[in-house]
Amino acid sequence: MAATTETPVAPDAATAPIVLSLTGLVKHFGDTIAVDGVTLDVRRGSFYGIVGPNGAGKTTTLSMVTGLLRPDAGRILVHGVDAWADPVKAKRTIGVLPDKLRLFDRLTGAQLLYYAGTLRGLKNDVVRSRSADLAKALGIEDALNRLVADYSAGMTKKIALAAAMIHSPRLLVLDEPFESVDPVSAANVIDILQRYVSAGGTVVLSSHGMDLIQRVCDSVAIIVRGRVLAAGTVDEVRGEQTLEERFVELAGGRKAAEGMEWLHSFSD
Ligand SMILES: Nc1ncnc2c1ncn2[C@@H]1O[C@H](COP(=O)(O)OP(=O)(O)OP(=O)(O)O)[C@@H](O)[C@H]1O
């Protein structure tokens, strides 16, 4: 894909404060090193993409940022607050869309949003009006009174996204927000997020959608085997290539489709 003039502009490094700072993050699971010294800075007003192959450590990194997993080593500062020394203060400013959605799915969508909003200290009427706004923007108004357990995958993602945003956090950490979401809804969500970023919010998201990251994000980090192999503005990271080409290069290239002839010898 050719370079576009629409590439989002990264916040000015000289003036925009760092709202999320990761230094030397490490996480092991037994003998597996899931995250191996991740260091990243995200500035206010940034739309920051995290990409990497399956198993690269993206979810593990984001889970440490949002307080779901304790790091073995390293430091996370959210708006200058150490996320593991003072998690209550740090979490107040974050909205989280976790990867494995563990929602209270015996609640209706409206009840889930009510729970999310009141947990964050919002008054009843504020929760109700924001729930209505979010449901309308995400196209799930008709589903608000149905049990979340009965939602489709995309609808579940949307209600979780609404729950992450309802308290208008300064920083949104979204793990694969567009997975299972249809293209029209994804475009609506992007629109909402772009307006949020223009107003000074910050988005950090992981995704496998290289075109989407290249189009929407101003900055990106490519994580491979638990390490940041490239980070910076999207244009810095991709250089003369598309982001996808750069990603494939750093991830070790594509494997030639050799062998597997058995798959073409149809057994019936
Ligand atoms: N709870 C866990 N117990 C054991 N190993 C884990 C656990 N969570 C993650 N891992 C391992 O850590 C590594 C990184 O996983 P992670 O889920 O962070 O990758 P990812 O980049 O988010 O991948 P994907 O793109 O497939 O979602 C993988 O090898 C994974 O098997």
TrEMBL record:
Give the record's membrane topology: Peripheral membrane protein
Annotated transmembrane regions? none
A family per Pfam: ABC_tran
The protein depicted here goes by the name: ABC transporter ATP-binding protein
What are the GO BP annotations of this UniProt entry? response to antibiotic
Give an example GO cellular component term for this record.
Answer: plasma membrane
Name all ABC transporter domain ranges: 20-250
For whether the record's keyword set contains Nucleotide-binding, the answer is yes
Q: Where in the cell is it found?
A: Cell membrane
Q: Which GO terms describe its molecular function?
A: ATP binding; ATP hydrolysis activity
Keywords, alphabetical: Antibiotic resistance, ATP-binding, Nucleotide-binding, Transport
What the entry lists under InterPro entries is as follows: AAA+_ATPase, ABC_transporter-like_ATP-bd, ABC_transporter_ATP-binding, P-loop_NTPase
